[in-house]
Amino acid sequence: DNDLILYVNYILINAGSKQRYIVKDLLGQGTFGQVAKCWVPETDNYVAVKIIKNQPAYYQQALAEVSILSMLNQKFNTDERRHIVRILDYFVYQHHLCISFELLGANLYELIKMNQFRGFPLNIVRRFSMQILHALVVIKDAGIIHCDLKPENILVASSAGSDIKVIDFGSACLEGRTVYSYIQSRYYRSPEVLLGYPYTAAIDMWSFGCIVAELFLGLPLFAGASEFDLLQRMIEILGAQPPDDLLRDAQNTNNFFKQVGGIYRLEDEVYKDVIRAYCALTAEEYEAKECKKPVIGKRYFNYVNLEDVKLEDVIEKYPYRKNLAEEEVTKETLERLKLVDFLRGLVEFDPAKRWSPLQASRHPFITGEALTCPYNPPPETQQIRAMQTITVDHHNPGGGHW
Ligand code: ADP
Ligand code: MG
To answer: Which of 59, 101, 168, 180 to mutate to test the pocket of ligand 1 (most atoms within 8 A of CB)?
Structure first.
């Protein structure tokens, strides 16, 4: 077909620079093509080479990925882009566009899976959140929307195991040039994309919120089996529905809602049984149904009652680690309250109210400050921006670096 047949010691050649890439392993495979681990003999380096299928649509999309990543690489210094994958080279080999990247390790989904879907301790959730936010500040600053943030597209840097980088700008676009309407992977899809409402960089912050929750829970927060199921879960867990003006102006509202006496009501009767059936499945049963990931359900978390799965409950009632000392339990409880408050600003239906990366990075969950009342970020002005730069670089309560 449109793939190259790759085998160990197969050599890809950049005809321009005469650089050779010797295939050593296959790292990933997708609709776009394949990712190979390659050895560069001249520098004795290992890199990841994404080899795009020989088809015009993929070629164009991959060229956009090259230009966006090159722009990020040029515009920002090493420190600023330390949580974004580095593009090293690109070339055409036998009609295939090839892009070489720094070699990274496992992705966050694999990490969650290795941990048996039990979720990570809060200090790790915080550390990863900080780093993804750092990348998102830079991405938004460049006027880019990533459009496909999810655990699979966040990779652990191979050397330092606890440092992560955002990859896969294959769906990314410039803010203000939002051409496609069918974007983002379903579990991480924002309400405005789902409903067909003009979208902005705020869609990445929705996905980010979903990822933070998943890092803690070990399971996706909104594991919608369909778009309808997805919306139904959002409404259940967030305890509200999207604001009326969004529903009024969105293109797909009628696919989901019926207007009764001027009030939008989810058309749910038909779907209720299907949704209930899915929610009652165990993780294993759900996977057996060829769904990609297990789901938060009645039997998986036996404390969760389908009728009142609220965000607060999902986080606060998540089983505590065993053998915690009393003061550790108190600390954990306080941290969980912070996490709920943090998530509330991210999985916010109204994209205009959803926090920006800078606003989110000043939240007590990230800064380590005490949370006395719900966080209310100041508007994003130049002044806050300057202050934030200082906070981001030097205030470092998590113990690690960004
Ligand atoms: P797609 O657009 O098909 O999702 P990605 O860029 O996400 O393509 O790459 C697909 C997979 O290849 C990733 O999920 C990851 O497992 C692997 N991969 C991609 N880039 C790298 C890299 N720099 N280092 C190691 N593995 C990578
Ligand atoms: Mg990907």
So the answer is: 168
* Ligand 1 atom 25: residue of nearest CA: 104
Mutate to test the pocket of ligand 1, among 25, 27, 188 (most ligand atoms within 8 A of CB): 27
Query: Given this model, what pLDDT does residue 158 score?
Result: 75
Contacts of 183 (CB under 8 A, 6+ apart): 147, 148, 171, 189, 193, 203
Stated pTM of the model: 0.88
Distance CA 314, CA 328 (A): 20
Write b or e for each residue in 345-371: b if 16 or more Cβ atoms lie within 10 A of its Cβ, otherwise e.
Answer: bbbbbebeebbbbbbbbbbbbbbeeeb
Read off the pLDDT band of 226 (50, 70, 90): confident
Counting Cβ atoms within 10 Å, is residue 93 exposed (0-12), middle (13-18) or buried (19+)?
middle
Helix%, strand%, coil% for the chain, nearest 5: 40, 15, 40
Band of pLDDT at residue 289, cut at 50, 70 and 90: low
Q: Any idea which of 140-144, 257-261, 348-352, 373-377 has the lowest mean pLDDT? A: 257-261
User: Considering every ligand atom, which ligand is closest to the CA of 106?
Assistant: 1
Consult the annotation and say whether 50 binds a ligand.
yes
* Ion ligand 2: residue ranges with CB closer than 5 A: 153, 168
Residue 332: predicted pLDDT: 96
User: Which ligand minimizes its atom distance to the CA of 26?
Assistant: 1
Confidence of residue 391 (pLDDT cuts 50, 70, 90): very low
Cβ of 337: how many Cβ atoms within 10 Å? 16
Let me know: does 23 contact 7? Beta carbons within 8 Å: yes
Looking at the annotation, which residues are catalytic? 148
What's the gap in Å between 234 CA and the centre of ligand 1? 29
Ligand 1-lining residues (CB < 6 angstroms): 27-28, 30, 32, 35, 48, 50, 85, 101-104, 107, 152-153, 155, 167-168, 170
Give ∠ CA 12-18-21 in degrees, rounded to 5: 30
Ligand 1 atom closest to the CA of 31, numbered from 1 = 3
pLDDT for the residue 390: 38
pLDDT bin (cut points 50, 70, 90) of residue 352 is very high
pLDDT tens track for 239-256: 999 999 999 999 999 989
Ligand with the closest atom to the CA of 28: 1
